[in-house]
């Protein structure tokens, strides 16, 4: 039985606070949005008990800037867990221009699953990882 990742999405409208001196979205805003949606995805699909016991530490983050977004652009941010192993996962995030469908930004992040009390790597329990996938 193949597992299909559940894509978590949200929409944002580009505000003046993230516009840089080139009059487009500052690169750090994309990274911030990618990290925020990762946390939102985790919080939406887990309980407070799980969140108070486990967490994620980022190990590697690959960023690709493909196009520019400007003030008032409407963007869709999608994320999902692309793959996982015993104690790590790879999360893919894309930021897409809502009107054109063009990919503006992509990231692939490798995360390590940790127990919060020890801050050491932990095995990802199957009942947790299954929350992020649907069976097809």
Short description:
The protein is α+β, with helices and mostly antiparallel strands. The protein is built from 3 helices and 8 strands.
Key terms:
136 residues; alpha+beta; six-stranded antiparallel sheet; 8 strands; 20% helix
Describe the structure.
The protein has helices spanning 27-45, 48-51, 126-129; strands spanning 3-5, 8-13, 54-65, 74-84, 88-97, 103-115, 120-121, 133-135. By secondary structure, the chain is of the alpha+beta class. The protein has one domain (16-135): Hotdog Thioesterase (Thiol Ester Dehydrase, Chain A). Strands 2, 3, 4, 5, 6 and 7 form a six-stranded antiparallel beta sheet that branches. The protein has a two-stranded antiparallel sheet with strand order 1-8. The relative contact order is 0.26.
Question: What are the SSEs and their pairings?
Answer:
Blueprint: E1 3-5, E2 8-13, H1 27-45, H2 48-51, E3 54-65, E4 74-84, E5 88-97, E6 103-115, E7 120-121, H3 126-129, E8 133-135
Antiparallel strand pairs: 1-8, 2-4, 3-6, 4-5, 5-6, 6-7
In CATH, the architecture is Roll
> What structural class results from the helix and strand content?
alpha+beta
| CATH class category name | Alpha Beta
> Into which percentage range does the β-strand content fall?
35-45%
- Average pLDDT reading: 96
Taken from the alpha-carbon principal axes, the silhouette is: elongated
Radius of gyration: 16 Å
Q: Major sheet, described briefly?
A: 6 strands, antiparallel
* First-to-last CA distance: 7 Å
Would you identify the CATH H-level superfamily? Hotdog Thioesterase
Low-pLDDT windows of residues? none
Number of domains: 1
SSE string, helices as H and strands as E = EEHHEEEEEHE
**Helix share of residues?**
10-25%
Total DSSP helices: 3
Q: Number of DSSP strands?
A: 8
CATH topology: Thiol Ester Dehydrase, Chain A
